[in-house]
Amino acid sequence: MKEQGLQSSRVVLVVTLDDLLVAPGTMLESFWTAASANWWGALSALIHRADLAARLEGVTRTAPQRLHYREDVVAAIRSWREAGGRAVLVAPADDPAAPAIAAHLGLFDAVEQGAGEGAALDDAMARRYGPSGYARLAPGTVFNPDFALPGAAPTFLAPAPATTDGDARPRFAAKAALRLIRPHQWAKNALVFVPMLAAHQFTLAALGHAVLAFVAFSLIASATYVLNDLLDLNADRAHPRKRGRPLASGAVSLAQGTAMVPLLAMAGIGAALLSGLPLLATLAAYAVFTTAYSFHLKRLVVIDICALAVLYTMRILAGSAATGIDASMWLLAFSTFFFFSLAAIKRLAELVDGARAGRSGAHGRGYITDDLAIVANIAISAGLVSVLVLALYANSQQVQLLYTRPEMLWASCLVLLFWNSRIAILTQRGQMHDDPLVFAVRDRVSLVCGAVIGALALAGTVA
Question: The whole model's pTM is what?
Answer without folding.
Answer: 0.67
